[in-house]
Write a structure and sequence with these properties.
homodimer; 341 residues; alpha/beta; Rossmann fold; eight-stranded mixed sheet; 13 helices; 16% strand; globular
Chain lengths: 341, 341
């Protein structure tokens, strides 16, 4: 039943280039921005077409009386999460959570040591997990994401995100967010925009930490979700998380999630993969001023470089059609002076 | 497939008392508020326990350093719509919309003149529609709410709400909102609360007009919804509304809708029927300061009087358990100096 979600989380754990060492992105100097830092809301962006496009667009839609003025209430900006706001290599961070969760639960499930796909997870054999395909991942998601209450799951995620470390950089996952994008979020909010996450990742996996990390409140997170059931446990009402998919907020599911949760069409959209194609299309095909951005991972030194051949964050069609559709491509190597905070 | 939604919309069109005449609620003077109007954010509320409870609660949760202080980001207040923010007699207003919509579409469906339940609708025979039960209503909802795009449906609702008139008062439906509740909405927002609608009604039926009428933006409306599909029509991306239920946001569905859309537990909840029981329970059973309100329709002169015997807005269990659960009952006759704007 979780097959569709499993496909979203993807078992692809390879990427087109080897992961970087543990060097801090900020260790690598890049072309400094020529504008004065004090007056610059986007100091981690190098001067160039991407930065100019952001500033120009915001200026146009916020100029009262201007031809392209957009009232504050309609200034909705949507952001993909994996690969757009934080890194996604060598595997989606939520998959790392799922695998860790299986390990944490193993003591309660002695049969897992001999039962696939859990056996492979417990041995650290990702290839073995992968050979089980979508069904294997569905079982892992059900075991790691369902069966508890929303309050319990929130605590589990909160504890994990505070302690877990990225396999190659050894940094906390929440330290592997993109500093230039944090600046875009703040800059847009300072200009009256409401910023939303619109991610294929699980909504309840993001909500516990995104306000602290991105300044985005839980109610502004659109994500994939499983079904919930309201019931009483010992006289206390709870919402129980069921092993059934409710929404796969990826590809053509993103405009659906946006309409369900926001009910307005965004004016800006930021993505990085073909999973964001429909979100970018839905945003920018509407009348009035609209702008789409694609973050292109081009910097193998400071981060990762991957696009059309990557099983994670595959970027082909969105890149091919970007120019014709007027979408702005952010070339990380060229455009970002700094990667992580 | 729309059975569950149909049940929510309900075919009950009777109520326990005859509908009032067209007299304006404001024609009937009531005990004036003893506080000075200038300093009073709730001028349409008579002094009494309900008004005092609202003011006391807001004062406590907004006093910095106070024992019950709640940060602004967590000040979430949820409001049922039908019977809480606007009237719901002699039938849910959305049902009136559905019936009008069937009439508007009849010319394109010649067979409807002989095919139930459409035949009964076109003859104005509500009893005939009712005899078809849930299945009849499902067919009416599918015909009136699905098959178009989100943009088309928004326009249809916008046009209808601007023109349609209530069957007995002859007022516009959006003029049959409760003035005292409009004041509560404004008062809470002025005190840093985020106000949400959480209704069994259709989310896309409410979104086109709630910002203008209640000051609640589309993204703060939680409601029942049907499925949508993203597709291209002549190269233009659209979201098509399908005749399949996605969420019935009523009873135990309300906490689910709240969690899906808001992801935080509200601190205040306002309802009027047993369909709001679980929303009130979910809100007030949480730790910390919480307050639940039940609007009790007790005024047959200025509005309608109904509760446990009404097929619309049935109120029995919520009323019976209110005292034990600490829910505040708003007695319209006693507490509201004015009903409609």
């Amino acid at each position: 039943m979780l097959g569709a979600l499993a496909a979203t989380l993807s078992l692809g754990v390879a990427c087109s280039r080897p992961p970087p060492g543990a060097s801090r992105a900020s260790d690598t100097p890049a072309t400094p921005d020529s504008a004065s830092a004090a007056s610059d809301a986007l100091p981690s962006w190098n001067q160039g077409p991407a930065k100019a496009a952001i500033i120009s667009f915001v200026s146009r839609v916020t100029t009262p009386g201007g031809r392209e003025f957009v009232p504050a209430s309609e200034r909705i900006a949507v952001f993909d999460n994996d690969g757009t706001l934080w890194a996604e290599q060598p595997m989606y961070f939520q998959l790392a959570f799922a695998l860790d969760r299986v390990k944490a639960l193993a003591a309660q499930h002695p049969d897992w040591t001999t039962r696939e796909p859990f056996r492979s997870v417990l041995k650290g054999d990702l290839e073995g997990v992968k050979s089980g395909g979508e069904q294997a991942l569905s079982q892992i998601i059900a075991a790691s994401h369902a069966g508890n209450t929303t309050a319990e799951f929130e605590q589990i995620v909160t504890d994990w995100i505070a302690a877990a470390r990225h396999p190659t950089t050894r940094r906390r996952y929440t330290d592997m967010v993109y500093q230039p994008m944090l600046e875009v979020l703040s800059y847009l909010r300072a200009n009256g925009f409401k910023t939303y996450i619109v991610s294929g990742g699980g909504v309840e996996f993001m909500r516990p930490w995104v306000e602290r990390v991105y300044g985005i409140p839980p109610e502004q997170v659109v994500g994939s979700r499983i079904r919930m059931k309201y019931e009483g446990r010992d006289g206390v009402p709870v919402l129980v998380r069921l092993p059934e998919v409710d929404l796969v907020n990826d590809k053509a599911g993103k405009p659906v999630g946006i309409q369900q949760m926001i009910g307005r069409r965004p004016v800006m959209a930021f993505g990085n993969s073909d999973g964001d194609f429909e979100m970018l299309e839905w945003t920018t095909a509407a009348p009035g001023p609209r702008l789409g951005f694609i973050v292109h991972h081009t910097d193998a030194e400071r981060e990762w470089a991957y696009d059309r051949r990557s099983s994670i964050g595959r970027l082909a069609r969105s890149l091919d059609e970007a120019e014709a559709r007027g979408w702005q491509v952010v070339d990380i190597k060229r455009d970002w002076a700094r990667i992580f905070p």
